[in-house]
Write a structure and sequence with these properties.
Blueprint: H1 4-18, E1 21-23, E2 26-30, E3 40-43, E4 49-50, E5 62-63, H2 64-67, H3 75-78, H4 88-97, E6 110-116, E7 121-130, E8 138-143, E9 153-155, E10 166-167, E11 178-182, H5 185-193, E12 198-200, H6 211-223, E13 230-233, H7 239-254, E14 259-261, H8 273-278, H9 284-298, H10 302-313, E15 317-322, E16 325-331, H11 333-340, H12 354-372, E17 373-379, E18 382-391, E19 396-404, E20 412-416, H13 418-422, H14 424-434, H15 444-455, E21 460-464, E22 467-470, E23 475-478, E24 481-484, E25 487-490, E26 497-499, E27 503-507, H16 526-548, H17 551-558, E28 563-568, H18 574-584, H19 602-610, E29 612-620, E30 650-651, E31 659-660, E32 665-672, H20 680-683, E33 686-691, H21 698-709, H22 712-715, H23 717-724, H24 726-744, H25 754-773, H26 779-801, H27 805-820, E34 838-841, H28 843-852, H29 860-867, E35 874-883, E36 890-897
Parallel strand pairs: 11-12, 11-13, 13-14, 18-21, 21-27, 22-29, 28-32, 28-33, 29-32
Antiparallel strand pairs: 1-2, 2-3, 4-5, 6-7, 7-8, 8-9, 10-12, 15-16, 16-17, 18-19, 19-20, 22-23, 23-24, 24-25, 26-27, 30-31, 34-36, 35-36
């Protein structure tokens, strides 16, 4: 059964995304989600499973719950109870979430409501009463929409759940031959609906041996002179389940119960009994398989486990694991034949019954197997190939392994290349390198057999080499959390994200974001301290960080994203501000990278830019004095980053001529004491934010100290708030962008540069979205910020029309020197050009004259860098050899074109 609300959503998605067509009572001719061939089909009324008929090439069934997990959550919102159907919410959960037929469950559960008064978060719950002991009634409940805040399950407050059991109704446990015992109630229901006698002991944890009910069974069996039923411990196939099984087996055996173990299938995807029920895999023909898995678990010796495998499959050589070590089994045919040569018992035992003869023959075969079994340890650990991880961009790939050790040592995870798995000697070397104290003693043939087990049909995981946003998958990958369409995903135990539509994604993170997802720890008052400490400028810097989270989406629509420059003299608090803003993103004790060639190599800087997507790259103050002054950073090299251009090409390691040219996917923030001096093209891409010391007060100092005391786990929820509301924020940005762009273009503002308007309008729109959806900023302060943006745009427009201060001061000094110092033989003291429209400066000569006449000039390298962008005296060429009209000799000069008013 599928509720109509869900059926409509599923059908609409299958039609839109996989091109299914309605044909009678089926959906047909759709793309298989696995192989994408258009032959898949499913039921129209209850499309729970998509079937692919290409059995030889695919044939993989796709379960709708796995394909669209978002359709099987938020039960309270999607299925609201009504007067006619007061338990509609929990009924929908049982049917669609658990796949259970509720007709037989009526009366076993109730719909309740739970609220946590500390967080003020509440949810409808599904509650099961537990009444296996007179006068001591409790309950267990499943919270349906915990929202990442509430616990998923809980028992009745103050009620001791240890020793209790949840029992199925109308079940004759006493006369049952065997009883299956599960951890959870849903697993017991699944077995019960499949015709298997079962009860739940509520947990596999310590102290959860179901003593109350098992004591009742013993008493009633003794009273009725009945044999004790066999107990089948059917816990989850994981570490906790295994530990619980071994503890309970020992105690149950001591109390006189015969026991077996049954386990659901293990492997890459964890199943429980409820999962198997949903997939119709709890038929009686399946139960022996699950008992076989249980027998493997509790085998006492390696040879016992090996013989179980041999009896089931008949292979005479194979590898297997036991106690987290790998062994090799080989059956010695000669020894086996020797034991079986006298198997005919008829001559000596003519009076034996046929059953007695069969028993004797089976015993003889078992003895032969034990004598002929040869078991050798080949690895003193247990490697498990988790998945194949690949990078499409760089054409690199690895196999990711988990390595377990005996004696409860901590497991390790690491990668193996194809070449390291292809030869026994290379595998041995790699294993020694990644697993302390481990040695592979097997041969190449044995390794080949192991590889067949390890990597056949191995899961594939896409690998990205950066932190942040994957534009094709529309997914943010941030440390242990990922966000897709506002929904949070946590990294699994195998270090990757399982996303909808069978997408597996992993980030090889170059740095760590420590993001706390616990909403109760979030200290929202930081915004008040930020305003008190930095005022309007602090909010603009916050907007630059906030906007970086949507850089690629904005570039896709608006073609560019501005550079932001935070500039001010030392002591204005730029470092404290940047470190605080990074805490909002979960990056600790970090400010930025110095791009100065003396501090960071070109390759290192390129890698820094490639490390992030939809996150800022912060370039901090580079040295302007000393030995490294001659190696000033060239800002013009960053021009292409404005519209997400390439960072430069690197070769791909595949033996061909392919190159890898990744685009810039982040944003650029520059923090310096002095303003950036670059070409007009670069200066026009920068939004300039100036910090002044005279803006500092005692109150702002105290507020900045408060900011520095916030811990990352009190702030990093900020980035989660931003990503949860991604769609709403981008919608608000696009709505406001046109309005702000038109406002700044108004004639009264006198802003002529279209790029300046575009850049400032983008940040104004982002600030509006920030205030609307993420933080609470007083309205008056919002108005001040928007006024400041307009003032900044006007100032930037003027800067682009004129020279920088350092250039203006330089030419004023030159003109002053020309007027004050007389050359007895020429009409100039500094201009080496004989052409009337040019001004040629030899810097060695210039600085010598300035020293002689006590004129002050800036440091030469800084000055030369600024003069390359001179406008009033237009820069023409640097270091050109000319015939000097002053000395009559050849001089290397910087050539400038005189302004019209200065020409003869």
């Amino acid at each position: 059964m599928m509720f109509p609300e869900t059926q409509t959503l599923v059908v609409d998605r299958l039609k839109a995304e996989y091109e299914f067509k309605e044909r009678d009572d089926k959906l047909r001719f759709g793309k298989c989600p696995t192989c994408l061939h258009k032959e898949a089909w499913t039921s129209l009324e209850s499309p729970w499973v998509i079937h692919c008929p290409r059995n030889n090439k695919c044939g993989t069934p796709t379960y709708i719950r796995d394909l669209y997990p978002d359709l099987f959550e938020k039960w309270e919102k999607r299925f609201k109870p009504t007067a006619e159907h007061p338990t509609k919410t929990v009924d929908a959960y049982l049917v669609e979430g658990r796949g259970l037929a509720i007709d037989q469950l009526k009366g076993l559960y109730t719909q309740e409501y739970y609220k946590d008064y500390d967080t003020q978060v509440g949810s409808i719950t599904l509650r099961f009463p537990i009444t296996d002991e007179d006068g001591n009634h409790g309950w267990w409940q499943r919270i349906l929409d915990e929202q990442g805040v509430l616990p998923k399950t809980m028992f009745k407050k103050g009620w001791k759940s240890q020793g209790h059991s949840w029992l199925t109704p109308n079940t004759n446990y006493i006369e049952s031959k065997e009883i299956w015992i599960t951890e959870g109630i849903f697993d017991t229901i699944a077995l019960w609906l499949s015709g298997i006698t079962s009860f739940s002991c509520l947990s596999a944890g310590v102290g959860y041996y179901p003593s109350i009910f098992l004591n009742q069974i013993k008493q009633k069996c003794e009273a009725n002179n009945l044999p004790l039923p066999k107990l089948v411990w059917a816990f989850d196939n994981d570490k906790a389940g295994h530990e619980g099984i071994f503890k309970n087996l020992e105690r149950a055996a001591a109390e006189g119960f015969e026991c077996e173990v049954a386990l659901p299938p293990g492997g890459r995807k964890k199943y429980d009994w409820n999962d198997l029920y949903k997939q119709n895999r709890l038929n009686f023909s399946d139960l022996e398989t699950y008992k076989y898995f249980g027998a493997l678990l509790i085998a006492e010796k390696p040879v016992d486990k090996a013989l179980l495998i041999y009896k089931r499959y008949g292979n005479k050589t194979f590898p297997f694991d036991f106690n987290n070590q790998v062994y090799w089994f080989k059956l010695d045919n000669d020894k086996y034949d020797q034991y079986l040569k006298d198997i005919n018992f008829e001559d000596d035992n003519e009076d034996w019954l046929e059953s007695e003869k069969e028993t004797a023959q089976a015993s003889r075969r078992d003895a032969a197997l034990n004598a002929a079994a040869n078991v050798t340890k080949i690895i003193n650990c247990k490697p498990t190939a988790l998945y194949y991880q690949y990078s499409e961009d760089t054409d690199e790939a690895w196999y990711y392994f988990n390595i377990d050790f005996p004696r409860n040592q901590v497991s390790v995870k690491n990668t193996f290349t194809g070449s390291q798995l292809a030869a026994a000697s290379e595998f041995k070397k790699r294993l020694l390198a990644v697993a302390p104290g481990v040695v592979y003693t097997g041969n190449g043939t044995q390794l080949d057999r192991l590889l067949e087990q390890w990597i056949e049909d191995i899961k594939r995981v896409q690998l990205i080499n950066y932190v942040g946003y994957h534009s094709e998958l529309k997914t943010y990958v941030l440390g242990d959390l990922a966000y897709q369409n506002g929904k949070q995903f946590k990294i699994n135990n195998e270090d990757y994200f399982e996303l909808p539509k069978n997408i597996n994604l992993k980030s090889r993170t170059p740095f760590t974001l420590e993001i706390n997802s616990n909403e109760a720890d979030y200290q929202k008052q930081w915004i008040t301290d930020l305003i008190d400490a930095y005022g309007v400028k602090g909010l603009i810097a916050l907007t630059a960080f906030f906007g970086s989270l949507y850089a690629q989406q904005i570039r896709k629509t608006h073609k560019s994203f501005p550079f932001v420059e935070l500039v001010g003299e030392p002591g204005t608090g730029k470092t404290t501000l940047l470190q605080f803003l990074w805490k909002l993103f979960g990056r600790i004790n970090y400010e930025g990278v110095d791009p100065n060639p003396g501090k960071t190599s070109k390759a290192g800087l390129t890698r820094t830019f490639r490390q992030v997507s939809n996150l800022p790259v912060v370039l901090i103050e580079s040295d302007r004095e000393g030995e490294s002054a001659a190696k000033q950073f060239n800002w013009d090299t960053l021009k292409t980053l404005y519209d997400g251009g390439s960072l430069g090409a690197q070769g791909v390691k595949n033996g061909g001529n392919e190159t890898y040219e990744p685009p810039f996917m982040g944003t650029l923030i520059i923090s310096q004491n002095a303003e950036v001096l670059a070409s007009e093209a670069v200066m026009g891409r920068i939004v300039h934010v100036k910090f002044y010391k005279d803006q500092l007060t005692k109150e702002s100092l105290y507020a900045s100290r408060r900011l520095s005391k916030y811990q990352p786990d009190q702030l990093s929820q900020f980035i989660l708030h931003c990503l949860k509301k991604e769609n709403a924020i981008l919608e608000a940005f696009n709505l406001n962008m046109q309005r702000h762009d038109a406002f700044l273009h108004e004639e009264q503002h006198s802003i002529q540069n279209a790029r300046v308007v575009h850049n400032h309008a983008q940040l104004m729109s982002l600030f509006d979205a920030l205030c609307q959806h993420v933080v609470d900023v007083p309205v008056q302060m919002q108005k001040q910020v928007q006024t400041e943006f307009r003032t900044m745009a006007q100032a930037r427009d003027k800067v682009l029309k004129s020279d920088s201060i350092i250039v203006q001061n330089f030419w004023n000094t030159i003109e002053e020197m020309e007027d004050a110092i007389r050359n007895p033989t020429h009409d100039t003291i500094l201009n080496h050009s004989a052409k009337s429209d040019l001004f040629a400066i030899n810097f060695a000569h210039l600085y010598r004259v300035a020293a002689d006449y006590r004129y002050s000039l800036p440091e030469m390298n800084e000055l030369q860098n600024a003069l390359r962008h001179s406008l009033h005296y237009r820069f023409v060429e640097a270091n050109k050899a000319i015939q000097s009209k002053i000395s009559g000799t050849t001089k290397r000069c910087w050539i400038f074109e005189k302004p019209t008013s200065q020409r003869d």
